[in-house]
Amino acid sequence: MSLQALREGQPAQRRRALAKAITLLESSRPEHRAQADALLTAALPFSGGAVRVGLSGVPGVGKSSFVESLGLHLVGQGLKVAVLAVDPSSSVSGGSILGDKTRMEKLAIEPNAFIRPSPSRGTLGGVASHTREVMRLCEAAGFDVVLVETVGVGQSEVAVAGMTDCFALLQLPNAGDDLQALKKGVMELADLIFINKADLDPKAAMRARAQIVSSLRLHNQAHGAQGLPEVLQGSAVSGEGVAEFWAAVHRHKTQQGQAGQFDARRHAQDLEWLQERIEEGLHQAFATHPAVAAQWPQLKDEVHAGRLAASTAARTLLNEFLGVKTHG
Ligand code: GDP
């Protein structure tokens, strides 16, 4: 698998090459890992050029409809759009909230669009499993926009907000839900809020918008109006508000750039990426270490029975892992 295959040739061939490269990234076989690392290293100098947008919201709010609408708007402007879906449900239920339905049929057939659901692997780290890496490959393959979609069911929003330039939250024109999100602190992550389905009840959407704006002001009094997310409304189905959404993404990017925050955010995200992968690697090495694996079940029982402090059990296992000789 070469970088050239991602960057040269017909769009259809390049999309196939990108899909293959992602499969390579997601493989856990050591020889594939080495190939994937080589590919990433080659891709890195050509990455970073896309606008990275995160998108979240409760199931049914209209995420896939919105991504399709926005994606079509962007390809209509001659931009190349990659859509990556981060699906935290697939690890829990074995099923998938995002992946099971037929999604984005119109966008999927656009030559300048690429859609990839990413199954997550087990842990929360798995939520973002390989999305950061996949994003780099998409950028090296020439995509101008990377949209990362996730379901608003907990910490997946944190993961996606932590890997994008602009994190947008989709809301229903329903005040109760908005307060819910505020309580959870999810709105604090948002750079942009879009009240979807405004076509169903434009007045309710306006009320919701006013309410969200005032709640945001209230919660952010210390920071003043600056830095508050823009709140927009519209409809993924009619397309109303989608162009405005994209304009707001650009405004946010420009403001961040002017404040020197754009590069700072990306640098911080790169360091988080490093940290995440180290922790992931350590966890895996620990869990699969033969001496650790041999003693773990028994120590768990001891902790469970109250015969051993969890901290002591942990130290015993860590000593095994590190090969530290204990006395006595
Ligand atoms: P997701 O679960 O957040 O990805 O939501 P979907 O995009 O699958 O949308 C859920 C349902 O809401 C579908 O039946 C969509 O057709 C509908 N829907 C999405 N956006 C809008 C909108 O702006 N207006 C209206 N009236 N329906 C919408």
From TrEMBL:
The gene is meaB. This is Methylmalonyl Co-A mutase-associated GTPase MeaB. GO terms for molecular function: GTP binding; GTPase activity. Keywords: Hydrolase. Transmembrane segments: none annotated. Belongs to the SIMIBI class G3E GTPase family. ArgK/MeaB subfamily. GO terms for cellular component: cytoplasm. Its EC number is 3.6.5.-. It is an enzyme of class 3 (hydrolase). InterPro entries: GTPase_ArgK, P-loop_NTPase.
